[in-house]
Amino acid sequence: MPGPFDLFFDLSCYCGIPLHRRDAYAAGLTGRAAPGARLLMFAYGGDAQHNPNPEIKSWDAGVTADELRTRFAGWEIVDLTPGTNQMPTFWVTLRRDS
C-alpha cells in the first residue's frame, strides 16, 4: 500500500460515489494518510432538485458535515466554507488526528 501521504484533494469525487461505497472510500483514504494529514474536499450538498446527473442516485442523500464526521472517523473538520455557485456546494478541510 502506498503512503503515507500528508495531503489529499477531492474535487467532487466523494459526492459521486454511491452511499454503500463511501465507507470504503473513507477507509482507503484513511489507511494511506499520515498522522496530521489534510483532506481538501469540494462537495455538492443534498439538493436533489439541482442534480446535474439524475443517474447518480446517491445525490438525494447529499454530502453533509455530519456524514463526513461519521464516515471519516479519526478526522476533524477544521474548515467548512459554502461554495459560491448556484448549486448547494461547500469546501471542507479535514485533518487526521495525530
What would you say this structure looks like, in words?
With 98 residues, the chain is of the alpha+beta class. The protein has one domain (5-96): Rossmann fold, CATH 3.40.50. Helix content is 17%, strand content 36%. It contains 2 helices and 4 strands. It has helices at residues 22-31, 65-71, and strands at 5-11, 33-44, 75-82, 89-96. The protein has a 4-stranded mixed β-sheet with strand order 1-2-4-3. Strand 1 (5-11), helix 1 and strand 2 (33-44) form a beta-alpha-beta unit. The longest helix is centred in the first third of the chain and has 10 residues, at 22-31.
Which structural class is indicated by helix and strand composition?
alpha+beta
The CATH H-level homologous superfamily:
Vaccinia Virus protein VP39
**Overall morphology:** globular
What is the total number of structural domains? 1
Low-pLDDT runs of 5+ residues are none
C-alpha termini separation: 20 Å
- How much helicity do the residues have? 10-25%
Reading side by side through the largest sheet, how are the strands ordered?
1-2-4-3
**H-E order:** EHEHEE
Radius of gyration: 13 Å
What is the overall pLDDT average? 85
> Per CATH, which architecture?
3-Layer(aba) Sandwich
Kindly estimate the percentage of residues that lie in beta strands according to DSSP.
35-45%
| Helix run count | 2
The strand count comes to 4
The CATH first-level class comes to Alpha Beta
